[in-house]
Amino acid sequence: MTRWIDRPAAREVIPLLPGESFRWLEHDYPSEIARWNYHPEYEIHLIRKGTGSYIIGDQIGAFGPGQVAMIGSELPHDWMSDLEPDEVIIGRDAVVQFDAEWLERCIGVLPEVSAVRELLELSQMGIIFGGQTALDAAEQIELVGRTSGSRRLSHLFALLAVLTHAPKEEKMLVTRAWFSASEGREGKAAVEAGLAYIFANLNDRIRMSEAAHLAHMSEPTFSKYFKRASGLTFSDTVKKLRIANACRLLATSELPVSTICTEVGYSNLANFNRQFLAEVGMTPREYRNLDDAERPSGMSPRLGLGTANRLVEHAHP
């Protein structure tokens, strides 16, 4: 499994089969497609079996069977199961993926579906659902996989309705908003080019000038649109993703801290330790020594579940 764990995130290409307007799939773990990735499509993800750690955006948390999460467009994510040597978890996940533009066209002719827009906005922070909402959503996800044609479509809309109307106590926002679609074409271009460049060079030297060049923008223009669309400066995004990748490697590998330092793009161990402490609230060694249940679940140590619930309350007054 190491050959998948220590790879950086990749932009995933999600092909649709003929006659499909969205995608449903299931996969085992480990698997080459079960890795740190991001894509423009929205994703609803069900864990059927196993326990482990997830990474959503720049946050690490724990998962178990029955967890349902919704991942926004371009939001990096991965679920890393705890495995015995040579263990394979068959059918670990069931996943629904759909394109926002397709859903907007649906809303254009089916205004009853318009309430889902608010769900899409919240999913840019990643949402983990619990309680009856997770149970009902899991049932609809499985029904999507077992049906076809109009029945399949009806179960997708039923799934979206379940998540849209989830009570606030049954949903937790995971991270900051990764990308605001309202910032338009320039913001989208800056974020897409920036993330692609960052992930391709996460263990190497990263220059904003190169990302700006990929976005066909000047540095000041790129910097402005990237910050407006992502909510962070380019350098802060690089730091958060490097530390998140370090958390992932600390939790899922036995690589020495000094090796992880280099793997995530730091050339100086003291600086890496200092940046990790500032971001996570503990040293890399302290983080590695935590049990899975002790690691921050859903939010960073500095932004707990109470804050997540207040964010949901703010979004749904």
Automatic annotation (TrEMBL):
<dbReference type="GO" id="GO:0043565">
    <property type="term" value="F:sequence-specific DNA binding"/>
</dbReference>
<feature type="domain" description="HTH araC/xylS-type">
    <location>
        <begin position="192"/>
        <end position="290"/>
    </location>
</feature>
<dbReference type="InterPro" id="IPR011051">
    <property type="entry name" value="RmlC_Cupin_sf"/>
</dbReference>
<dbReference type="GO" id="GO:0003700">
    <property type="term" value="F:DNA-binding transcription factor activity"/>
</dbReference>
<dbReference type="InterPro" id="IPR018060">
    <property type="entry name" value="HTH_AraC"/>
</dbReference>
<dbReference type="InterPro" id="IPR003313">
    <property type="entry name" value="AraC-bd"/>
</dbReference>
<feature type="region of interest" description="Disordered">
    <location>
        <begin position="290"/>
        <end position="317"/>
    </location>
</feature>
<keyword id="KW-0805">Transcription regulation</keyword>
<dbReference type="Pfam" id="PF02311">
    <property type="entry name" value="AraC_binding"/>
</dbReference>
<dbReference type="Pfam" id="PF12833">
    <property type="entry name" value="HTH_18"/>
</dbReference>
<protein>
    <submittedName>
        <fullName>AraC family transcriptional regulator</fullName>
    </submittedName>
</protein>
<dbReference type="InterPro" id="IPR018062">
    <property type="entry name" value="HTH_AraC-typ_CS"/>
</dbReference>
<keyword id="KW-0804">Transcription</keyword>
<dbReference type="InterPro" id="IPR009057">
    <property type="entry name" value="Homeodomain-like_sf"/>
</dbReference>
<keyword id="KW-0238">DNA-binding</keyword>
<dbReference type="InterPro" id="IPR014710">
    <property type="entry name" value="RmlC-like_jellyroll"/>
</dbReference>
